[in-house]
Amino acid sequence: MNAKAYISHYVNYLKQEYPFLTEADSIIIRKTLFNLEDAFKRYFNKQGGYPNYKNKFSKNSYNTSAVYRKYKTKEYCNIEIDLKNKQIKLPKLKWVNIKGYRNLKEKNGRIINATISREPNGKYYVSVVFEIPSISNNYVIPKNIIGLDLGIKKLITLSDGTIVDNNKYILKYEKRIKRLQKSLARKVKKSKNYYKCKHQLAILYGKLKNARNYYLHKITKQITDNNDIIVTEKLNTKNMLQNNKLSKNIQDASFYEIIRQLQYKAKNKGKYFHQIDTYYPSTQTCSVCGNIDAKYKNLNERVYKCCNCNNRMDRDLNASINIMFEGLKIHFNNFA
Ligand SMILES: [Zn+2]
């Protein structure tokens, strides 16, 4: 008997020994044992350490696979989604109401798996993976190009002069989180008030995350709708300089999310997305004459004043224009 067959057999034995296991989705019990087998295999092959024991508090999520069964002509799946009534059916559960910020009208594709998780704010989330028919590889004929400078003071400066700031909800939640963090630090560890404060903090973090994601999707949609070639810098420490740890983490997360979204949205729309190298001196170069002035490595200078051609320009706008031109070079070298 091979390991997989043995595990399936063993699950039945376990269920008799521990009746509560029958309450759980049988796929995840098997999955857990497969994972355990993998972990031991890696350990015996000296590819990993001895598997850690995980108690029921250590991980608040599980992943279950879609299983399809055909009966007569109809195909049935153990995971179902009803977008009209906004409900989801998961193994061992009844239909559960769902709320989603993307409000999809229809699902186009085959369900592969679902991850159910409980976030620290006490809310339950489910993310469902779909396999969608391959998106066409047809690129548009580019008519315009835009460069993006990601920054600390201004979230995005576009080479056409548009400025995208963090929206007021994000700033509001950030402020409240900072305040609450300070009050948490003053509380007696493991006291009732400490846990109460921690819970409130978790709720705020959840709200911030949702507000940020909603806002970033709106921005990246606009940018990929209106432009055919989109250029950003690769993320580097220049963007990451920040005195406060909290706002740094939030900012980093926003940058990564912006780039991730631009990348896949551009692809889906047949647009081009290029990233220029981190060592390219976008803030030091004059976007008019190309002169490089090392003093603009310094973040405090808000206006770029060229000592060669007298160009005066907002520092971030100057950088975004340079990024755009560098992107244009990449584009012509690779695609034209
Ligand atoms: Zn110049």
Put the structure in a nutshell.
41% of the residues lie in helices and 20% in strands.
What does this protein structure show overall?
The strands form 5 sheets. The chain has a 5-stranded mixed sheet with strand order 11-10-9-12-13. Strands 1-7-8 form a 3-stranded antiparallel sheet. The model has no long low-confidence stretch (mean pLDDT 86). It folds into 3 domains: 56 residues; 74 residues, no CATH class; 191 residues, Nucleotidyltransferase, domain 5, CATH 3.30.420. With 336 residues, the chain is α+β, with helices and mostly antiparallel strands. The chain binds zinc ion (ZN).
Number of DSSP helical runs = 7
CATH topology of the largest domain: Nucleotidyltransferase, domain 5
> What is the strand tally?
15
Named at the architecture level, the CATH assignment of the largest domain is 2-Layer Sandwich
Provide mean pLDDT, rounded: 86
The first-level CATH class of the largest domain is given as: Alpha Beta
Regarding quaternary structure, how should these chains be classified?
A: single chain
Q: Give me the secondary-structure category.
A: alpha+beta
Distance between the termini: 58 Å
Give the helices and strands as they follow along the chain: HHEEEEEEEEEEEHHEHHEEEH
Which ions and ligands are bound to the chains? zinc ion
